[in-house]
Design a protein that fits this description.
Elements lengths: L6 H10 L4 E4 L10 H11 L6 E4 L1 E2 L6 H4 L5 E5 L12 H12 L4 E5 L14 H7 L2 H10 L8 E3 L5 H9 L3 E4 L1 H5 L19 H12 L5 E2 L8 H4 L16 H10 L5 H15 L15 E3 L6 E2 L18 E2 L4 E4 L2 E5 L2 E2 L13
Parallel strand pairs: 1-2, 3-4, 4-5, 5-6, 6-7, 7-8
Antiparallel strand pairs: 9-12, 10-11, 12-13, 13-14
Helix pairs in contact: 6-7
Length: 356
């Protein structure tokens, strides 16, 4: 789907947002479900990236985890339907596949929505989308994962405080995307805000926000889904789910630091240290033996997001006009990619999870 985004445009957006390494999901065309497809994708994207990167593989029945694991940051399990067709929602197959993956030491990231609780009724706005994908589907999926307590599982894009609490009790890491912290369907009903799992109502969103402020969530995820404005301009039911966010996530987080909404230590932990540690990167710390990946921010220089100046092919952002602090300098493995807020680098990005 390179008409929506390719590795050059996506990592260009990432580096302008202060991101030095991206982890790409497997629900592309073709989906990354086996070693051969993974190796083909690695060969295709080599030399095209401005940031370092890793390519996830999907959890599928009988996947050869032992062969794939050294080449990926982790595996993605889709318990609910979303972009792509790599749904796996059978408990027996999930148990068999995950037990094989856990033996490799790699982490499993989960799209935690119980497909059996997702409705398929026609949708005209985000309120309808929320009705079709209730919070109970998310909580139900988490409870089904309870047999894997203490294992290396990451719960992606949490939308409610109860899911965060359950995941934390089970010893799982958790992600949150900014759209679930800030948007709610009564004010953001258009297809621009359609995403899986959906944005929740204000009461649920507010409890999630309080849990985030309290430090209960492990890390940020952009959940970058760069569908084009033309895609999103279809009628709501036909429009794809997903929001572009890789260029705006950290700048908006840094503006929260500037306004003393969260401490810098929390931004560093959620945006750098914990993601790197969770996915076995020698990144995320200023320490001997770690990659010299650095993003430098001048907290006096805040601006407003201008979707016309962003670098994704999506061509729009629901954060247009929001206050943000973009990086003054970005360094990837000691090489300067952004200086004085301007791009000065090259396609130096490397796959940090093994070579074919």
């Amino acid at each position: 789907m390179t008409e929506k985004e390719d590795f050059s445009s996506g990592t260009n957006a990432a580096v302008h947002g202060g991101v030095t390494c991206v982890l790409d999901m497997p629900n592309t065309i073709p989906p990354v479900t086996d070693a051969d497809t993974l190796l083909e994708k690695k060969a295709h994207v080599k030399g095209r990236a401005y940031t370092d990167y890793g390519l996830f593989a999907a959890v599928t029945p009988g996947c050869n985890a032992g062969m794939i694991a050294p080449l990926v940051p982790g595996f993605k399990l889709f318990m609910g339907s979303t972009t792509g067709k790599i749904l796996l929602n059978d408990d027996v197959e999930i148990r068999s596949s995950l037990n094989g993956i856990f033996k490799t030491g790699r982490r499993v990231s989960v799209h935690a929505e119980d497909e059996r609780m997702i409705q398929k009724e026609q949708e005209k706005n985000c309120r309808d989308h929320l009705r079709n994908r209730p919070v109970e589907a998310e909580i139900g999926a988490l409870k089904r994962l309870s047999r894997f307590k203490g294992m290396k599982i990451n719960i992606c894009h949490n939308t409610n405080a109860e899911s965060v609490s359950i995941a934390k009790e089970l010893g799982f890491t958790t992600e949150v995307a900014l759209h679930h912290l800030f948007f709610e369907p009564d004010r953001c009903s258009a297809s621009e805000y359609k995403v899986n799992p959906p944005i929740r109502n204000a009461a649920v969103r507010d409890k999630l926000y309080k849990s985030f402020i309290a430090g209960n969530i492990s890390m940020f995820g952009s959940d970058h889904a760069p569908h084009t404005l033309a895609d999103k301009s279809q009628d709501f039911d036909s429009a794809p789910s997903g929001i572009p966010g890789v260029e705006t996530t950290i700048p908006i987080v840094m503006n929260m630091v500037r306004k003393n909404t969260i401490p810098l230590t929390q931004a560093v932990s959620m945006g750098s240290e914990t993601p790197a540690a969770s996915f076995a990167m020698k990144k995320g710390k200023i320490k001997e033996g770690y990659d010299a990946d650095l993003a430098v921010f001048d907290m006096r220089k805040f601006t407003n997001v201008d979707e016309r100046r962003l670098h994704s092919k999506a061509g729009y952002s629901p954060y247009d006009g929001w206050e943000a602090v973009f990086p003054e300098m970005v360094i990837v493995r000691g090489e300067v990619q952004i200086d004085g807020g301007e791009f000065c680098g090259d396609k130096i990005g490397e796959d940090i999870y093994g070579k074919p």
